[in-house]
């Protein structure tokens, strides 16, 4: 595949469980094009959630979120959408570096402003991770990947558990009340990861997260940094 709508595909940026994201060249410059995976093309629920993400980003249309420019359908019936390309990478790239504490806190504050926009529109992201917080060409944080976001104004029925266990609130994993507090907890985990290089609880599965319990406490930031050979920070315990 070399072309999607008006966009010429340049290279693959990433592959997820449900979609592939491509860097593409279009009439207005570079964009990122997200295409539903072939193996999910006939799944009506997955298709609906894919399109819901694009339409939600279009509806909110705020500069702190990745903007969607166009939604389309491939000849084989798979939906796609073109969105802003953020060439600065993600906060997960920075997490792996020796990030000064003041910059880590500033980036976390920027991410909080992005989440505030989403919450003001009655939407819970449900998967706030360093990898879903991108940096645009000016170095500003942009919130992306609303694939499992929940619009709280649309019904109150059961919602499947979704998210990344290492950044997910225990209550979210166990079917507790779903509201913006889940995202706030995840944001705190992002800040911790930027300061220390790892999430507070590096669990890999939902079962591990549930077994951890709601009252577990992570190592203090200064202690966690001290455990990383070669890492330094201006964060000092008091």
TrEMBL record:
Domain Protein kinase, chain residue ranges per copy: 7-238
A molecular-function term among this protein's GO annotations: ATP binding
Positions annotated to bind ATP: 34
Gene3D superfamilies reported in the protein's UniProt record: Phosphorylase Kinase, domain 1, Transferase(Phosphotransferase) domain 1
Keyword terms: ATP-binding, Kinase, Nucleotide-binding, Serine/threonine-protein kinase, Transferase
Class in the EC hierarchy, top level: transferase
Taxonomic superkingdom: Bacteria
EC number annotated for this UniProt entry: 2.7.11.1
PANTHER family reported in the protein's UniProt record: MITOGEN-ACTIVATED PROTEIN KINASE KINASE KINASE 20-RELATED, SERINE_THREONINE-PROTEIN KINASE NEKL-3
Protein name in UniProt: non-specific serine/threonine protein kinase
Organism: Desertihabitans brevis
């Amino acid at each position: 595949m070399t072309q999607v709508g008006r966009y010429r595909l340049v290279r693959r940026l990433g592959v997820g469980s449900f979609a592939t994201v491509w860097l593409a060249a279009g009439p207005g410059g570079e964009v990122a094009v997200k295409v539903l995976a072939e193996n999910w093309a006939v799944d009506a629920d997955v298709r609906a959630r894919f399109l819901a993400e694009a339409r939600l980003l279009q509806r909110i249309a705020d500069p702190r979120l990745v903007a969607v420019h166009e939604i389309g359908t491939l000849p084989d019936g798979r939906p796609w959408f073109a969105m802003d390309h953020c060439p600065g990478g993600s906060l997960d790239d920075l997490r792996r570096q020796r990030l000064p504490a003041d910059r880590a806190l500033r980036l976390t504050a920027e991410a909080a402003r992005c989440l505030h926009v989403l919450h003001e529109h009655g939407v819970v992201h449900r998967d706030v991770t360093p990898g879903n917080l991108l940096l645009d060409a000016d170095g500003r944080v942009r919130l992306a990947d609303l694939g499992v976001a929940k619009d709280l104004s649309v019904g109150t029925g059961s919602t499947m558990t979704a998210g990344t266990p290492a950044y997910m609130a225990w209550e979210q994993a166990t079917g507790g009340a779903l509201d913006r507090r889940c995202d706030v907890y995840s944001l705190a985990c992002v800040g911790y990861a930027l300061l220390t290089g790892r999430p507070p609880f590096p669990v890999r599965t939902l079962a591990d997260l549930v077994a951890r319990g709601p009252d577990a406490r992570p190592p203090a930031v200064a202690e966690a940094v001290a455990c990383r050979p070669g890492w330094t920070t201006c964060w000092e315990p008091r």
